[in-house]
Amino acid sequence: MTPLPRYALNLPDGRWAYYLPEPERPPGRRTGLFADGVPLKRLEQLVDPKGNWYAADQHAEQITATYQPAPKTLHFDLNDRSALSQRYPAELSVEEWNERSECDEEYWKLYTRVTEDLPPVEIVYEGPYMPLVGREAPHSGTEPTWRAELPHELTQYPEYRHLFPGHIPGLKDAVAAHIKEMARVQYCFVDHQGFSGVYVSLKVPFDEPRTRFVPDTGRNGQPKKTGRTVRVLVDRRLQLPVPSAVYGPNYETALAEWKAQVEFWTAQVTAAGVAACSACEGTGFVPHGSLDHQAQPKT
Length: 299
Hints:
The model is unreliable at 285-299 (pLDDT under 50). The protein is α+β, with helices and mostly antiparallel strands. Strand 1 (7-10) and strand 2 form a beta hairpin. It has four helices and 20 strands. It has a five-stranded mixed β-sheet with strand order 5-6-2-1-12, with no helix packed on it. The chain is rod-shaped, with a radius of gyration of 39 Å. It has helices at residues 94-101, 106-110, 171-180, 251-272; strands at 7-10, 16-19, 29-35, 38-39, 41-42, 53-56, 62-68, 72-78, 91-92, 111-116, 121-126, 130-133, 147-148, 166-169, 185-190, 198-205, 211-217, 223-231, 233-240, 245-248.
């Protein structure tokens, strides 16, 4: 048996493909590959330039390969009987041949190798094989990009990338893009002024609408009696420690976490965008004097 990767690719045409490179030390010349006894066919060179993927019409339980070992050398026979002598005997063992032929090139001319064929060797690549069903790679602009840690034998098959561990990059930018479309957001920056994450500033109104008069100005900057009434808004700032990427055991799991992350961080901005409390002047706390009219807690 051999510890080859156990992947079975479900190809678009319905066939199943198996990664079957030569073993590191093959027992001979490979003469056949079989899926449950049915011969496998090598994938087209355009699909698999290295020729290590083989296809079958069915999902196999067992893959076998047959190898023909090189013939075994039995001895060496003298092919020129006129040279028969003590120096050149009629037959040499393998050990004698190795010893003498290194010192005298005549042996290569005078002797013929006598061999016998060895029986074929079968290697079993036992299952089960993990079936991998492909899909189109995530479309740029409509789906987050998936960067998978693919086994080297699958680097030419992006349609199976979504099944392996990896990460979706660009979460900060994606969250910032959503936040910029939200109401009351004034500014939104990624990694702003040394902060790693998303910086957000909002302009929110009071729960009890307030306005102020803004006079027009003359040419020299002097205020005029005319002007306009504008709403009074409160500034709020958020520093959201959004991670740069989402990691997962596969694309589907990571994509679900990606969506949850976007929802979580935008919810923080929604919560921060509520109207400012008039009682506390939008500072986030209620001044002491404003509690005088309220019932005090029992002691």
